[in-house]
Amino acid sequence: xxxPKFHHETLLSHSGREPKKLGGTVNTPVYRASTLxxxxxxxxxxxxxxxxxxxxxxxxTTRALEAALCELEGAFGAMLxxxxxxxxxxxxxxxxxxxxxxxxxxxxxxxxxxxxxxxxKRLGIETTYYDPKIGGGIRELMQPNxxxxxxxxxxxxxxxxxxxxxxxxxxxxxGAVVMLDNTWGxxxxxxxxxxxxxxxxxxxxxxxxxxxDVLMGVIMTSRALYPQVRxxxxxxxxxxSADDAYLALRGLRTLSARLERHQRNAHQVAAxxxxxxxxxxxxxxxxxxxxxxxxxxRDFTGACGLFAIQLQAMPASAVSAMLDGMQLFGxxxxxxxxxxxxxxxxxxxxxxxxxxxxxxxxIRIHVGLEHPDDLIADxxxxxxxxxxxxxx
Length: 392
Ligand SMILES: *Cc1c(COP(=O)(O)O)cnc(C)c1O
Known about the structure:
The protein is an alpha/beta fold. The protein has 13 helices and 12 strands. The chain has 2 domains: about 10-250, 3-Layer(aba) Sandwich (Aspartate Aminotransferase, domain 2), CATH 3.40.640.10; about 255-390, Alpha-Beta Complex (Aspartate Aminotransferase, domain 1). The chain has helices at about 10-15, 40-45, 60-75, 85-95, 110-120, 165-175, 185-190, 225-235, 240-250, 255-275, 295-300, 315-325, 370-390; strands at about 75-80, 100-105, 125-130, 145-150, 175-180, 200-205, 215-220, 280-285, 305-310, 330, 340-345, 360-365. The structure holds pyridoxal-5'-phosphate (PLP).
């Protein structure tokens, strides 16, 4: 984990590229290969046990992506998986065994929770959910068999920002590993390893790929944990295609430029929404006055385009009137592409350690790269449809 020599913008342009070795091509080509051939027995034996024996263990395209991601986040090693969720489940299984205890933020991405309640429970691994705002108070929940403390910041749907340095300090005191879902933070806006994280996981599907056309996950680890996680990943036989790796590398090159625009647009849209009478609260940690703003400012170097708004209590038909007629905001799961999205969510159904008190609906918004005035006009028209339904 050496300190990066260059700024993120520069690394994004230059990491994971070796034109001199590749006939001068700017981009690492797509290496489609399952079989690798060796000219001699000696050559075959020389690679035994390394990642250079067989296509499943990677190729120059996947390795270029791994190298670039490691440099950006300051990780020792990276492993690419077929989805963000598979990265999360692989990392958890790599670190936990029957009898272990897992501390899990209550604001975790719901499919991660489903894995804890399903597979981990079946394997005899116990999960305790904690209030995402617990900070150093996590000490009260540490058990002698607590092996992993899992954080996700900001939390899925509700955007609580966690005090990761405080949580990491306690976890390490007890010999536990800190695992983070860093999808919102991205490899460039939350320097996870500097803040005490041991394993950082991303749904690369979101901003890294950035164009809504590839599912991918990445697990990044410290030097100490790399052999264990890589070994387990290898045993599972996880592998991604070189074509997908190429698209992710292509998306990665513009990550900083895209995020700058996503964040600027999101600020403008969020501030406008905060002033609308139907909006009870905006949950965008990068917006002054939003919950979590102080910790976000302290620990993050930027934000993205994803946030939520809590509306006042209103009939379901009013929300439908707003969302059904959107012109620019698409309705769908996922986020992190160049396009704007809007989604009605229900965090109450996926919280157990804390409860989500809101009489009104929660709407998640992904602000894309469109002109913010057009997005605001679309939201304004949506709120007008909503107002007609409520008829206040
Ligand atoms: C989307 C998402 C995932 C899962 O990624 P997939 O590629 O869809 O499997 C994990 N964590 C967070 C926070 C996400 O938003």
